[in-house]
From TrEMBL:
This is 2,3-dihydroxyphenylpropionate/2,3-dihydroxicinnamic acid 1,2-dioxygenase. Catalyzes the non-heme iron(II)-dependent oxidative cleavage of 2,3-dihydroxyphenylpropionic acid and 2,3-dihydroxicinnamic acid into 2-hydroxy-6-ketononadienedioate and 2-hydroxy-6-ketononatrienedioate, respectively. Transmembrane segments: none annotated. Pathway: Aromatic compound metabolism; 3-phenylpropanoate degradation. Belongs to the LigB/MhpB extradiol dioxygenase family. SUPFAM superfamilies: LigB-like. GO terms for molecular function: 3-carboxyethylcatechol 2,3-dioxygenase activity; ferrous iron binding. GO terms for biological process: 3-phenylpropionate catabolic process. It comes from Rugamonas apoptosis. Keywords: Aromatic hydrocarbons catabolism, Dioxygenase, Iron, Oxidoreductase. It comes from the Bacteria.
Length: 314
């Protein structure tokens, strides 16, 4: 019942507005090494914990957590579009098992995922359809959100189920660390923007393009130091990484308000890493390595990558 973990930041700005060549080369080297590890491991099942950026999940019915029993990638920015090979029966069993463990989770037979899921699968496996994959959505952008502790416990419950399958499992966390790209907030939105956050599925190509251009413009302003975006927070990012590696339950002390204050509104994507480590922790003691960390303003990201495995397997 082996398990491996890979966590990494995502950014849709890769290929639109890149950092200096030496940084880009280093990130691509780290990504290639992670992909080699994954391909050598050859997982029988991938569980990817991913956020969504108002592409698949909206306030018309916003769950804190949702397991996909069938899913499609929308292909925003440069990410791949198309169906994910989801083992639906296993997803349903997973949801039943998590609910039986007192963690309330939704189930979707028509999940839409965006770059927050697709980019991790592409980087780590070379495509969307290389391995059977169960996507697990964690609300990381639409308040109110569950506690960070709840993401850890969700991960743990999923890990207990996975360990019973006997499968060679890879868990992925996609997102974070500190960052605050220009994603609107319902509380301060105009009526028109609010409607988009409540029921904004299936943007027209024009609206999609305008949205992507806004993100690229924001990245340029952020890198130039103009505008008033939340700063990246390398010290906070590194402290978080350290907790994952050596004292996972300590993340329970991080309140949602403190995450927003210290890391920015999209720093809530760290929930995906916490859930992935929670799943790994269900298998016993583990060893984690930090493969990369650097604040990359061009990508609006405190950009990190880690991998981990049970101590017995290391
Ligand atoms: O398209 C959006 O809504 C925001 C995209 C976005 C930008 C920078 C870093 C991210 O992690 C991210 O997801
Ligand atoms: Fe994101």
């Amino acid at each position: 019942m082996p398990i491996r973990l890979e966590c990494l930041s995502h950014t849709p700005l890769h290929g639109y507005f890149d950092p200096a060549p030496e940084v880009l080369i280093e990130v691509e080297r780290v990504a290639a090494a992670a992909r080699e590890r994954v391909l050598a491991y050859d997982p029988e099942l991938v569980v990817v914990f991913a956020p969504d950026h108002y592409n698949g999940f909206f306030y018309d019915m916003m769950p804190p957590f949702c397991i996909g029993a069938a899913a499609n990638s929308i292909g925003d920015y440069k990410s791949l579009a198309g169906p994910l090979p989801v083992p639906g029966e296993l997803s349903r069993e997973l949801a039943a098992s998590v609910l039986a463990a007192d963690i309330d989770v939704a189930l979707s037979y028509r999940m839409l995922v965006d770059h927050g899921c697709a980019q991790a699968l592409e980087v780590l496996t070379g495509g969307l359809d290389r391995f059977p994959v169960i996507p697990v959505f964690i609300n990381s952008v639409a308040p109110p959100m569950a506690t960070l502790r709840r993401s850890r416990l969700l991960g743990e419950a999923i890990g207990r189920f996975l360990s019973r399958t006997g499968k060679r499992v890879l868990v992925i966390g996609s997102g974070g660390i500190s960052h605050e790209p220009p994603v609107p907030e319902l509380a301060s939105a105009s009526a028109e923007v609010a409607e988009r956050l409540i029921a904004g599925r299936n943007l027209t190509p024009e609206a999609r393009n305008a949205r992507q251009e806004r993100t690229i413009a924001a990245a340029k302003a952020f890198t130039a130091g103009t505008g008033d975006m939340h700063p990246l927070n390398p010290a906070w990012d590194r402290a978080f990484i350290e907790r994952l590696a050596s004292e996972l339950p300590a993340v329970d002390g991080m309140t949602n308000a403190a995450i927003t204050r210290d890391g920015g509104r999209s720093a809530h994507e760290i929930r995906t890493w916490v859930a992935a480590f929670g799943a790994l922790s269900a298998y016993g003691p583990y060893h984690a390595s930090l493969d990369f960390y650097r604040p990359i303003p061009e990508w609006i990201a405190g950009f990190g990558a880690m991998h981990a495995a049970p101590v017995a397997a290391a």
